[in-house]
């Protein structure tokens, strides 16, 4: 029981944090007022005025969104990546204890992380003023992949030292 708590409790707590964040309407997570009040946006406008990209069918540029919303977009996508980086790491850590086959640990960790990312986007579709995006799942999957990669490297180093 102690091992289950040690390995799986962090995974489920982190999943709960993700679930809670996904249940918040956009208005409660809107960073634009904070960004506008605390940053000199002329610097952002100067540095990134020529940046234009398309994401989920929308143009992401300072011209289209304004500097605060443009910056918020990148903060939100970094949050997707880092959140699933941690989930992938924790998932690998938990499964590594139970599975002897490291490739299987890798694969199951990544599949579970991706499935949770998909379920998170579906959950967002029921949250006011939030919308699911396949592109977000791809960012989440990439963050999870890198988190799992780091965890596997760390655990490989620990296993090597024990031998």
Question: What does it look like?
Answer:
The chain has 163 residues and is mostly helical. The protein has one domain. The chain has helices spanning 2-22, 26-29, 32-38, 41-48, 62-65, 67-98, 102-124, 134-162; strands at residues 52-55, 58-61. Helix 7 (102-124) runs antiparallel to helix 8 (134-162). The mean pLDDT is 93.
Question: In brief, what are we looking at here?
Answer:
This protein is mainly alpha-helical and 163 residues long. The protein is 79% helix and 5% strand. The mean pLDDT is 93.
Rg calc: 19 Å
Largest sheet: 2 strands, antiparallel
Percentage of residues in helical conformation: over 70%
Shape: elongated
Order of helix and strand elements from N to C terminus:
HHHHEEHHHH
Note the beta-strand portion: under 5%
- Number of distinct helices: 8
- Our measurement of the CA-to-CA distance between the termini, rounded to an integer number of angstroms, reads 27 Å
- According to DSSP, the number of beta strands is 2
- Whole-number total of structural domains: 1
Structural class: mainly alpha
The overall pLDDT average reads 93
Strand order of the largest sheet: 1-2
Name the poorly predicted regions.
none
Domain VanZ-like: 8-154
Protein name: VanZ family protein
Keywords: Membrane, Transmembrane, Transmembrane helix
InterPro entries: Phosphotransbutyrylase, VanZ-like
